[in-house]
Design a protein that fits this description.
Distance between the termini: 63 Å
Largest sheet: 7 strands, mixed
CATH topology of the domain at 1-60 and 76-146 and 189-288 and 464-528: FAD/NAD(P)-binding domain
Number of strands: 27
Number of helices: 13
Radius of gyration: 23 Å
CATH architecture of the domain at 1-60 and 76-146 and 189-288 and 464-528: 3-Layer(bba) Sandwich
Shape: globular
CATH superfamily of the domain at 1-60 and 76-146 and 189-288 and 464-528: FAD/NAD(P)-binding domain
Structural class: alpha+beta
């Protein structure tokens, strides 16, 4: 079996690449180990906690004991299904900040500055917003992006509290101004999840130029320094006439490179794998966002707690099944905030996800009674981890160590994030609803107590990236060049979140899809889309002030 292009991984970037190549008339085979994305656990937005942890949809990876997190083994869910992690994630759409991509370019990802990637974000978007400057957004792309109805009064109260604390509002955090509080955007369309499989893979298959083959990849077949196809564990070889494209994600892409003999030579030899290309950066530079859920009891019966019972879930599910409306049609993340933690930082380094119930993200350990929570954490951790092999068996799960909180600055930033969250919750708009603090708890005030809560309760936001980072060819730690070509191997590209030089400011699904969109143009040999040099909004006195008054007339000095 062969095609012009063989793509390994039907996830966020892989689906986008498949569509653009098929649209251009190229023949494409997409290899995916996971199965169908049909079924209510994936389709119903409110059921987002269920696919994670289900072996049918999730690789089920866990970390090594994290030494700075009480040696906890922490979950690292990755999509094993059509659509990849876009089929099991929280459906939140965040481009990231313009400064993220300018930093990428400064780190050696030439041609990936914000002016370069903004046109690709617009190309992929079917934006249904009604606030902000629409010229920053795309409206005729394949990826539907919507906002929630914000019927619950807690959403507006949280946004107003952020403004009252001096952070201002943003009409569209994916447009000119990220900083401030406003409505979250989600990849939800007509009441159901709109994954990369919906947006890209199904249209690719409809062209007749693309097909999906199910199977577990054993290795990339390499002949005389050139990738020629993918060998499946069943022994079948899927041949590529032009190129092989690896898009298996931040955990599986480095693993597959290493089992194919591309990676740190010493590590490959230790695992009994012949070295094809010594690339010491493969599996290194692992990054993520860590967050804690600052939870409060609610003094009014306004949360989603009544719907957390068996009967409540049944009613929500039934309404969604028959009408695609109601609580089941939302992921319930409908309000957010992006703030700077102190003066001297030019763009936000803390993100808030607000949820009108006090419950774990995975759906477990619901707090009793009415409550709500803000998920909060620093955006640009200095800690770095790695992905490694446990042996030569391609079916063996990789060894994952994020090394969370290994840098001292992370502790300073995380403490500040928690204290600023408490300050926001103490503002008048939230005081009508906020009761006792449930987590970290009112007694956790000094640094030691806050640190203990972080070690015990902080969780991954599920944004792994960076393990095959992009850079210039002369950079010994770069794995791919700025055209997504794997350095040292001909005919092999890599395009997914693993190539991020640095984690972006917010949820990583949108940037992963953008990587697929832009990589497709490189693969096809097309000129990149024309640059858009408009600057983003940056607080004019960021060097001396952390926030502004609600009216924007006076500045409140950094705490």
């Amino acid at each position: 079996m062969e095609a012009d292009y063989v793509i390994l991984g039907a996830g966020s970037a892989g689906c986008a690449i498949a569509y653009r190549l098929a649209e251009a008339g190229r023949s494409v085979i997409v290899i995916e180990h996971g199965g169908t994305d049909a079924g209510p656990f994936i389709r119903m937005p409110a059921a987002l906690s269920y696919p994670m942890g289900m072996s049918r949809y999730d690789w089920g990876y866990v970390t090594e004991p994290e030494p700075h997190m009480n040696n906890r083994r922490m979950a690292c869910p990755r999509g094993k299904v059509l659509g990849g992690s876009s089929s099991i994630n929280g459906m939140i759409y965040v481009r990231g900040h313009a400064r993220d991509y300018d930093t990428w370019a400064e780190m050696g990802a030439d041609g990936w500055a914000h002016a370069d990637v903004l046109p690709y974000f617009r190309r992929m978007e079917a934006w249904h917003g009604d606030a902000g400057d629409p010229s920053w957004r795309g409206t005729d792309g394949p990826l539907h992006i919507t906002r929630g109805e914000q019927k619950n009064p807690l959403f507006q109260a949280f946004i107003e509290a952020g403004a009252a604390a001096g952070y201002g509002r943003t009409e569209d955090y994916n447009g000119e101004r990220q900083e401030g509080f406003g409505a979250f955007e989600r990849t939800i369309w007509q009441g159901r999840r709109w994954s990369a499989a919906d947006a890209y893979l199904r249209p690719a298959l409809a062209t007749g130029n693309a097909k999906v083959v199910r199977g577990l990849a054993e290795r990339i077949e390499i002949v005389e320094g050139r990738a020629t196809g993918i060998r499946l564990s069943c022994g079948k070889l899927i041949r590529a006439r032009a190129e092989v494209i690896l898009a298996a994600g931040a955990i599986n892409s480095p693993k597959i490179l290493m089992t194919s003999g591309i990676g740190p030579a010493n590590h490959l030899v230790e695992n009994g794998i012949p070295v094809v290309a010594d690339r010491p950066g493969v599996g290194q530079n692992l990054q993520d966002h860590l967050e804690i859920y600052v939870q409060y009891a609610a003094t009014q019966p306004v949360s989603l707690a009544p719907y957390w019972s068996l009967w409540g879930k049944a009613l929500v599910g039934a309404q969604w099944l028959f009408t695609r409306t109601g609580l089941g049609a939302s992921n319930q993340f409908e309000a957010c905030g992006f703030i700077r933690s102190r003066a001297g930082i030019d763009y936000p380094d803390i993100q808030f996800h607000f949820l009108p119930i006090a419950v774990r993200y995975d759906g477990a350990v619901a707090a009793g009674g009415h409550g709500f929570q803000a998920h909060v954490g620093p955006m640009r951790s200095k800690s770095r981890g790695r992905v490694a092999l446990r042996g030569p068996d391609p079916a063996a799960p990789p060894s994952i160590l994020f090394n969370y909180m290994s840098h001292e600055d992370d502790w300073i930033e995380f403490r500040r994030a928690i204290r600023l969250t408490r300050e926001i919750m103490a503002q008048t708009p939230m005081q009508a609803f906020a009761g006792d603090e449930l987590l970290p708890g009112g007694d956790a005030q000094d640094d030691d107590a806050i640190d203990a809560a972080i070690r015990e309760h902080a969780e991954s936001a599920y944004h792994p990236c960076g393990t095959c980072r992009m850079g210039r060819r002369e950079d010994p730690m770069a794995v791919v060049d700025p055209q997504a070509r794997v350095i040292g191997i001909e005919g092999l590209r890599l395009a997914d979140s693993s190539i991020f030089p640095q984690v972006t400011n917010g949820n990583t699904n949108a940037p992963s899809i953008m990587v697929g969109e832009k990589a497709a143009d490189h693969i096809l040999g097309r000129d990149p889309l024309p640059r858009d040099n408009r600057p983003p909004w940056i607080a004019p006195d960021w060097e001396t002030a952390q926030r502004e008054s609600e009216a924007g007339k006076t500045r409140v000095r950094s705490a």
